[in-house]
Amino acid sequence: MADPGLAIDFALAGVAVGSAAALSGVGLVVCYRLTGVLNLAQGGIAVFIAYLLRELVVVRGWPVGWGAVLCLLVVAPGLGVLLQLAVFGPLQRRQAAIGEVVVACVGVLVLLIGAVAAIWGTTPLTDVPSLVPARTVTLPGGHLLRVDAVAQLGTVLVIAVALWAIGRWTGFGVRARAVSADPTLAELAGVNAGRVAAAGWAFGSFTAGLVGVLLAPLVLLDPYGLPLLVMETLAVAVAARLQSLPIAVAVGLALGIGQSELTWLHPGGTLGPLLDAVQSNLFAVALLVAALVPWGFVEGFTEQGLLGGGGVPQLGRRRGGDAGWGSSWGWGWATAVCALALLTPLALRAGGVRAVLTVPALALILLSVVLVTGGGGLVSLGQGAFAGLGALAAALLASGRVPVGAALVVTVLGLATAGLLIGRPVVHRRGLVLALVTFALAVGLSRFVFEQPYATAGLTVLRPVFLRGDHAFYAAELAVLAVGALLVAAVRRGRLGRALVAMRDHEAGAWAAGVAVPRVKLLVFGLGAGLAGAGGVLLALGGEAFDASVFDPVQGLLWFAAVVVAGVDSAVGAVLAAFALVGLDAATVPGMSAVVVGALAAGAGRLPGGLAGRVRRAVPG
Fold this sequence. Notes:
- The chain has a two-stranded antiparallel ribbon.
- It folds into 2 domains: 16-303, no CATH class; 327-618, no CATH class.
- It has helices spanning 4-13, 15-35, 42-59, 64-93, 98-120, 147-169, 171-181, 183-188, 193-215, 225-232, 234-239, 245-262, 272-280, 282-292, 298-303, 333-343, 350-355, 359-375, 383-399, 404-426, 431-450, 453-456, 470-493, 495-505, 507-512, 517-543, 553-567, 571-587, 592-602, 610-618; strands at 136-138, 144-146.
- The chain is mainly alpha-helical.
- It is globular and about 70 Å long.
- A hairpin with a 5-residue loop joins strand 1 and strand 2 (144-146).
- It is built from 30 helices and 2 strands.
């Protein structure tokens, strides 16, 4: 029987994480209500402010108090205002589609993460300053209570009460409620919605920075782990339906305390390792549940908010009358240049081939984004997870000494089937909800499969003898990429391609024209999963290992942003993005690719058709 005293101790220990999660939820709710944007960039802001505070305090010797004042009260709100003025304000003024807003958020996220990696490196850090000393107080009964946890809980409650008072009794609160209810009518009544949105971004960035500073001493500080941990607290805001501050506070505290309580349970049996993973990743479980369960607020995600716009982004459409997607497969100059760039490494020495060995595999994964997002208009942030499943399947099959060709075929067919099964509850979502659901699936696979020893321990990936040389393997990669490209071209030219264009351009019109929209979405989702899985197989064989960090959900967001920037409506864009991701980091410092891709993605609305589209317009094929 459980010891009640031990349960109390674990509950008290969970207050710190729960308070940070509640604060994150409060920031997301307020930012969404004032701006209409679900701040997917919150994790990037959090990690940037946490690293900046460490730089000031640990490296430069500032007092913690002064460093916190500069980071949390000057830099973080200023960053939020800058985002409103430079990124989201222009999108708001031209009523951008939801897809463009998602891309901009992802761009800001990867830009900040890349900046952190480029400036401070990727080595995890432990010497992180704490705002409140980690002292403990002994309660009656011998229970220990951490002073910093009490301070964090008090901060959350004070902020929540202050927000309630501002919204109820101040002029700004009246204007904010008007903008939240209907920004157009508020503007007609003389309310400056842009200033209200700037205040929302300033507060959202402040809370994101505070969450990063509070969580950093509790976990390792690294550019990828902390942002993902903060992004998992999206579950708190979704559970609050992006409206209720009390629910956000209650859910955040409940999840933090619940995760702490579960850590002292040690289930046995076959399912023991899986249950252990669930216990230590309760926020990821909550995100999956919050994203998948239809709680009746899907319409609010896709239609409400300052940015309005439809649920399905027009990311694949190009201006200037060219409405087809993937038409760059006509043998124009852009295609020829990409083909030449892919073939050139075959003439290099072994070291030169080794440097670009991952390019065709990555291009194949990005080609799945071209098919799903560029062709179908489905904002899927989970293609990297399907690639990870492909890599894991390759490792499992290679461990059983299955021939590489058979392993590739089995993996592609299996993942296409899995994509159909997973896609069934997913494809009925659209816009921001679809993006959130696919990201939640990526987080779930990463936390409960890729990072768990029960799924990946003891796996070895060896290339067959005839592919042991880098030149031979690179040639095989090019052959598989060519097959994938021909598949995408065949889809574009066939009935499915025409149905995709109709569905992407106007879903209601496609329904009226007799297009079976759910079936078309499901089919393209399955095909995309198969393509991504094939790319994952090649990545695993190229590195001769299964590396879970390669398929981190944050890495998947970088891949998505890269192909959108390069040109999500063309295979040329997938190849350009692959070369950029591999080449920028190799030629400069790790994280530079994220900086460049993030900066371009944040302004993707000003780059119709991506870089590939600009190349086509400059040098027509």
